[in-house]
Amino acid sequence: MADITVNPQTENPEDILKSLTNGRGADVVLEVAGGTDTFQTAWKIARPNAIVCVVALYEQPQILPLPDMYGKNLTFKTGGVDGCDCDAILRLIAQGKLDTTSLITHRFSLANALEAYDLFEHKKDHVIKVVLKP
Amino acid sequence: MNEQMNAVVYKKNGQFVLEKRPVPAILNPTDAIVKVTLTSICSSDIHIKHGSVPKAKPGIIVGHEMVGEIAALGRDVKGFSIKDRVTVNVETFCGHCFFCERGFVNNCTDQDGGWALGCRIDGGQCEYVRVPYAENGLNHIPDGVSDEQAIFTGDILSTGFWGAKISEIHANKRFSQAISCPPVSGEQKSVKSTLAIQWQSSVPVPPDSALCFAVASIIRHILSPLIPIRSVLPWPKEKEWPISP
Hints:
The structure holds two protein chains of two kinds.
Chain A: H1 13-20, E1 26-31, H2 38-45, E2 46-54, H3 66-69, E3 75-78, H4 86-94, E4 104-109, H5 113-121, E5 129-133
Parallel strand pairs in A: 1-2, 2-3, 4-5
Chain B: E1 4-12, E2 15-22, E3 32-41, H1 43-49, E4 66-73, E5 85-88, H2 98-101, E6 128-131, H3 134-137, E7 138-140, H4 147-150, H5 153-166, H6 171-180, E8 193-198, H7 209-223, E9 229-232
Parallel strand pairs in B: 8-9
Antiparallel strand pairs in B: 1-2, 3-4, 3-6, 4-5, 5-7
């Protein structure tokens, strides 16, 4: 799903983005993680006049450092999904163009839901997505 | 239909429990009852558990991403039949208010509008779920598509699709912008759109990796192979993942 991966614990995303884009930065940034510092990285790796789309749900308020970003002329888009494209998505799945089954790393019966929650919440056993079967 | 069913319930801040709950019934003519055949746990459920979703009501059944079979239909629901296999949309929308008419269904002004299922009204981590405005909130699963293939349609894949849409990642538009730019290093092929998807905080807090993947899949589909695209997904080496809190 990705051409390039960056691990921000060992690499600097801002430098890598610049090196990939002749020093400009990303045309579009989607902030999906919702971590404690991910919003800051999102606007920093964007090029001037980029769109920064904040999809993430945060547990804490985030700071918009306007003096630091003055002149960068970014467009921020935020919010919760306007979910009305399900038929289009299902068509892509039926055509084999979209396959997210590999995200399902764990399967539980509904009766064992609390065990599933413990695993998911504490990110045990390399979990990505848990499904429950009633 | 059984009288009682298993359900995951948001009891109070910090506590989810497995309880027996009555099987839901049709309340409005636009409702459907869906027999849940597969449901998922989302990081938003964890946010609810921790009290970070102010609209979430204690006592509700959680779960907002599920697929199933129609078990009962209100008299006004058209286009669906009993036993149809369906995905359930995370959002309930009336389809005719100011926001719905503009496609902004997240802000549907109906009392059940927006993210209601598994947040403000009973959701789908149970055996049967009542879906208000079923004609808008249900979609048929095409033949040959399994529950596991369809399960993420109503939430994380919808979010990816929407995120790509509002980010104005439309292949044609960005492509024309890309080719109308002066070549950066003398070659047209060097003009590339670069897409960054931020993956992980440098502070050790695990993000919702599934949502990141889903957004990446959608963008990958919408863009490739129309434009040369580099996506940047910070993905730690396997042995560094996950980071325990």
